[in-house]
Each structure stands twice: as C-alpha cells, then as structure tokens.
C-alpha cells in the first residue's frame, strides 16, 4: 500500500482545508473514510475468496490422491483374499478327496447348561469395610435411640 508519513498527511490536510473549506471538510472526510472502509472490505473479501478457491483446489487434489490410494489398497486386498480362498478350496478338496470322514471327529457334544449359582450376599460381603464406610453403606441397623446417642455431643449425657 502507499506509504504516507506524518508530514505528507499534514500537507494533504492543509491543502484539503484550503481547497474544500472548513465548512465542508468534515463531511468530505466522513465520505472519504466510508469509501476507504468499503474498499478495504471489498479487497478483504476478494482475498478470502481467492484463498478459498486455492484451498478447494488443494482439497480436490488430496481427494484424488486418497481415492487412488484406496483403490490400490482395495485391489491388493482383493488379490490376497482371492489367493487365500483358492488355497483354502485346494486344501479342502485335498482333504475331502482322501475318503476319510473328518466331520464326525470334529463334532463335540454340546455341554449341559448349569446355573452359575451367584450369591448376592457373598458379593455384598466381598466389599471392604473401608469402602463401605467411605461410601456410606450401612453395615447393620441401629435403633433410633442408639443413633441419637451416637451423634449427641459428649457434654449432653442424660
């Protein structure tokens, strides 16, 4: 942008005061300021639009590179799966061609269902006392009188 020092700005102001006059100078200065602001906003919008278009082009390039990489990986995976399937089919045909029945030896009897016999009292009793005290879990019941006696200040015994 243009480089104006203080002395150049003072000279421009003095010339404007003489040419325009003191009555119209504030109105002209306001108008010039508004026009400069609009011009700066327009330039900023154009810069932002150019930056967005550059970023969009970069993103499209990255997208195309990513798609080519994905297609390459997909092809290699398909080739590996196909080769593994062919090897498995070959092995299966070799095994079944022997004539022996492996199916009977592979089947095992299903186990009978047994209830796990969970004991909630045992689970509750497995909690440590320090955790119960910290969590505020009651370990045993107290009568109302015992509770009052427990929380009564020591100097008020009746």
TrEMBL record:
**What topology does the record note for this protein and the membrane?**
Single-pass membrane protein
Provide the protein's localization.
Answer: Cell membrane; Membrane
Endoplasmic reticulum as UniProt keyword: no
Is Cytoplasm found in the keyword set?
no
**What InterPro entries does UniProt report for this protein, alphabetically?**
TatA/B/E, TatB
Q: Where is this protein primarily located?
A: membrane
Q: Keywords assigned by UniProt? A: Cell inner membrane, Cell membrane, Membrane, Protein transport, Translocation, Transmembrane, Transmembrane helix, Transport
The task this protein performs is described as: Part of the twin-arginine translocation (Tat) system that transports large folded proteins containing a characteristic twin-arginine motif in their signal peptide across membranes. Together with TatC, TatB is part of a receptor directly interacting with Tat signal peptides. TatB may form an oligomeric binding site that transiently accommodates folded Tat precursor proteins before their translocation.
Q: Which family would the database say this protein is a member of?
A: Belongs to the TatB family.
Concerning HAMAP family, the annotation shows: TatB
- How does it associate, per the subunit comment? The Tat system comprises two distinct complexes: a TatABC complex, containing multiple copies of TatA, TatB and TatC subunits, and a separate TatA complex, containing only TatA subunits. Substrates initially bind to the TatABC complex, which probably triggers association of the separate TatA complex to form the active translocon.
Name this protein carries in UniProt: Sec-independent protein translocase protein TatB
- Natural source organism: Pelomonas dachongensis
**Which gene specifies this protein's sequence?**
tatB
């Amino acid at each position: 942008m243009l480089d104006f020092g203080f002395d150049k700005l003072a000279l421009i102001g003095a010339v404007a005061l003489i040419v325009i006059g003191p009555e119209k100078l504030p109105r002209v200065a306001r108008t010039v300021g508004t026009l400069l602001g609009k011009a700066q906003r327009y330039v900023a919008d154009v810069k932002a639009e150019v930056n967005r278009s550059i970023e969009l082009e970069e993103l499209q390039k990255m997208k195309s590179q990513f798609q080519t990489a994905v297609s390459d990986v997909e092809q290699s995976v398909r080739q590996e799966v196909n080769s593994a399937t062919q090897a498995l089919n070959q092995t299966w045909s070799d095994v079944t061609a022997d004539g022996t029945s492996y199916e009977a030896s592979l089947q095992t009897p299903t186990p009978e269902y047994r209830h796990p016999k969970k004991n909630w009292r045992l689970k509750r009793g497995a909690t440590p006392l320090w955790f119960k005290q910290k969590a505020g879990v009651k370990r045993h019941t107290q009568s109302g009188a015992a509770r009052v006696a427990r929380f009564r200040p020591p100097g008020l015994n009746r």
